[in-house]
Amino acid sequence: MRVPDLIQKKRDGGQHTAEELRFLVQGYVDGQVPDYQVAAWLMAVFFKGMTAEETTHLTLAMAESGDMLDLSSLPHTVDKHSTGGVGDKTSLVLAPMLAALGLTVAKMSGRGLAHTGGTIDKLESIPGWSPVLSDEAFLNQAKEIGLSLVGQSKNLAPADGLLYALRDVTATVDCLPLIASSIMSKKLAAGAKTIVLDVKVGSGAFMKTLEDGQKLAEAMVNIGKLSGRNVRAVLTDMETPLGFMTGNTLEVLEAISTLQGQGPEDLRELCLALAKETLLAEGYSEAEAESRPRAVLQDGSALAKLKAFVASQGGDPRYIDDPSLFYVAEDKAEILAEQSGFVAHIEALKVGQALLVLGGGRETKGEAIDHSVGIELLKKIGDAVQAGEPIARIYHNQKGKDAAVQLVKEAVRVDSEKPAEVGLILGRVG
Ligand code: URA
After folding, report:
1. What's the 294 CA to ligand 1 centre distance in angstroms?
2. Model confidence pTM above 0.90
3. How confident is the model over 207-250, as pLDDT tens digits?
4. How far is the CA of 179 from the centre of ligand 1 (A)?
5. Among 40, 249, 278, 347, which has the minimal tally of Cβ within 10 Å of its Cβ?
């Protein structure tokens, strides 16, 4: 097999075999195939696309390029993945809910990416909590508590790390089969039998339109089916931030409040919808899938799981019992409504960018972040406001304050007419 022939085949619209894709992916990981050939091939894929079968073969080749976690000793393994959003603290609520429902969440999560946050960064707001566990401790904790969550290991789908970095600099990121295989290779390697995907759509997401989101969801569910996993996807709105809080510590506080049976309506609705989808995938009836997740939020069992999980990974459990212990930046700036009317729009992308300039996300690889800063929305879309009334509050430590105020001002639009309601759940696949 010769790489130039494979590039030519894709350039001319041909369909690759599993062997060809394995040869290319493994050759790249082993250092036998140079960047320039893979870059040319990526661009050919960008223009010519891939069939569902090819996308699955590519995903499997990427998943098998490193460790494949064996979770077969654990019962009912489930995983959840969000394609990334602003204020998206869903995993912090959903993972303990699923554990309280008797399922096993043995999960790898990421850090923030561009303007979107990451679960590991959020959990590190809890003093002492560590994203590092030995393989043995990871499995034992999952067995005992039903929940262990660690950072991505370097050897999980290493082909994705290499390809992602190359795509980033060759204008081949926004290519559906490449995104689908990138996400699913990590999920397949991470070992869970059931995978529920939260595909975000809107200004704050990588998929800007419902049509593209739907296609991505279908591609990922298809990969799951063809590779023997139980995969479902929910399409959800990311035009506007989820909940009221954006920022690492602020989001942990909002997640705890939701696990206490309070919290914002949209976050609660999303967590219930994803928990329902997971239970349906696990064979529960519609009625059970509807009622059981509500019960674990009400009876405190999901909150108890969060506390046990935090303590088991070195975190201080007193912070879960008494969230007032968390340190939140003390300096505050308020954004006031310039006119009376209704909040018509709050653009997620700008709020995400505001967090970045405050130091709550990274601009360069490996940079330390400030967990204490963030943005609290005081109004949501559709709420009435009076001129001069606060719409949002920024918690800052001086860094980037003026730029963040400007971004949040630009993010919010007030109109004289009440906007039509847009649902949070936009569709389902699987
Ligand atoms: N997230 C990923 O993991 N990969 C992509 O290609 C896009 C988003």
Report:
1. 31
2. yes
3. 889 999 999 999 999 999 988 999 999 999 999 999 999 999 99
4. 5
5. 40
